[in-house]
Amino acid sequence: MIAFPLPAPADPAAEVPALLAVLAETHPTMALAMVHALSGADSPALRATGHRLVEALAADSLLDQDVDAVVSRAHKALAAFENWTDQRIDALLFDIATLLAGRAEELAIAAVSETGLGNVADKTLKIRFASLGIYRSLAGQIAQGVIAVDEERRVTEIASPVGVVFAIAPVTNPVATAIFKMLIAIKGRNATILSFHHQALGVGQLTCGIVRDALKAHGAPADLVQWVHHPNRKVTRRFMAHQGVSLVLATGGQSLVQAAYSSGTPAIGVGPGNAPAWICPDADLGAAARAIVGSKTFDNGVICGAEHNLVVDAGVADPFVEALIAEGAAILTPEETRRFAAQTIDPKTGSLRHDIVGQSATTIAAAVGVVRAYPIRLLIVPAVFPGLGGFPSEAARALDRFNTGEKLAPVLSMFTVDGEDEGLQRCQALLAIAGAGHTAVIHSTNPARVERFARVIRAGRILVNSPAAQGCCGMTTGLACSMTLGCGTFGGNSTTDNVTFRHLLNVKRVAYPLEAISVARSANASADRR
């Protein structure tokens, strides 16, 4: 037998704090027992560890009490709200939406100032859509009691609230997402506990405060809307796993969504966007360029459902580039691409550096020395799939990851393809790398090509000749108006829908025996007796 040398054992006392910290999260009673044992130990280091852990567990106990209190208030609010009619709720929602829309610019300024992401003009439009636009999609809808009757099947559907919803708002889109989630929750007679990123907590509190004031003015319980005052991962996990929380509505990064799904509480999550936009030979190139530039520059590109990659048929590549330039896009040269990669891409992850996310194309262009004779609205990086020649291997790998992944800035990658088969394959490959289930775009006037694209592409939203940022959420398309877009099992989610108030309802079904079945059973029974 070959003997392999074993590493020297670590100092047990040095390992204890980390091990007990983990144990305190999962089995606090056992951790507390071990802490008491440590407090009487001979080792000064172990005794000190015991004292520190007693303090930590006491703080955890206070945290649990705080979480319990918030959830308890939410349940009391639910009980006081349960008999409100749809008509009364719609009147409440109208006033909430009107108040928020009237303060949209103020909220947009606060969001940009606090997060440093996006721009005021587009956030103002987004907030107005998330308030009045979402209200219009909710008004008049039946959200309680009997919502459907099937006379033939003798089935009646009855809706009731899901209960307390723990809703997470992303730092890229804190106000509009929070407004949307509050409105759909109230429509379904649910209570909401919102969690904002710490960099958006101020504007989050301002937004929730406006809604709470409107609730009070209508005689509704203000605690239908609450928020986490000191957000961090531990607090988020406690709320997600709390037995009094009925549903987690998670909008954010992949790790957060995975935490929601593993919390033990039912959850609706989302996935990253990485929408390919296929420019077909029969596309209206001018219209496609206007749609893409108008979409990817909206709010400085922080909308994950916007286009992230252009897949352009070689037969129209040159005139399409001209159309993009006419709309203010700058197509980077090889040297500009090298500078862009060196100064904006994290070499370890292949993603945009955090200080580049959500910045304007003008700011990014100035930072990397890209100059044009016209105002630059969008930066486009020509790309080869897969792999790039002429770069050091590490830089090539980072740029490849960037070109094939999500880009939350007014920046796009552009791939050239030969023919329909390669175009479809490239779009499929890009979604397989990132963005599966989210959104894909086709610019074509050929219905058969559109149908083929829709059949094979693994995306919940297939947009045709539409700007993606505005189209995916129902702003410019007939899709359900929503700020939370499911990716289905393609992207590890439970639904491909644009999430609405209907996803925050429990639907009961009252079923009676079908007459035909009853007659058949009677006939069989008579035959048996004979």
Walk me through what this model shows:
By secondary structure, this protein is an alpha/beta fold. The chain folds into 3 domains: 15-65; 84-269 and 502-509, Aldehyde Dehydrogenase, Chain A, domain 1, CATH 3.40.605.10; 275-479, Aldehyde Dehydrogenase, Chain A, domain 2 (3-Layer(aba) Sandwich), CATH 3.40.309. The chain is 48% helix and 15% strand. The chain is built from 19 helices and 15 strands. It has helices at residues 12-26, 28-39, 44-81, 86-102, 104-115, 120-138, 174-187, 201-217, 233-241, 254-261, 285-296, 317-326, 334-344, 361-368, 393-403, 419-433, 447-456, 468-471, 515-529; strands spanning 145-150, 155-161, 164-169, 191-196, 225-227, 247-250, 267-268, 275-279, 307-313, 329-331, 378-383, 411-417, 437-443, 459-464, 505-511. A 7-stranded parallel β-sheet has the order 10-11-12-9-8-13-14, with helices on both faces. Helix 1 runs parallel beside helix 3 and helix 4 (86-102) runs antiparallel to helix 7 (174-187). The longest helix is centred in the N-terminal third of the chain and has 38 residues, at 44-81. Mean pLDDT is 90; it is low at 1-10.
Give short descriptive properties of this protein.
530 residues, alpha/beta, Aldehyde Dehydrogenase, Chain A, domain 1, Aldehyde Dehydrogenase, Chain A, domain 2, seven-stranded parallel beta sheet, five-stranded parallel beta sheet, 15 strands, 15% strand, disordered N terminus
- Name the CATH superfamily classification of the largest domain: Aldehyde Dehydrogenase, Chain A, domain 2
Strand content: 15-25%
Unreliable parts: 1-10
Instruction: Tell me the strand order in the biggest sheet.
Output: 10-11-12-9-8-13-14
Principal-axis shape:
globular
| First and last CA, distance | 81 Å
Q: Give the beta-strand count.
A: 15
Classified by CATH, the class of the largest domain is Alpha Beta
Helix and strand content put the structural class at alpha/beta
Helix content: 40-55%
Q: How many helices does DSSP assign?
A: 19
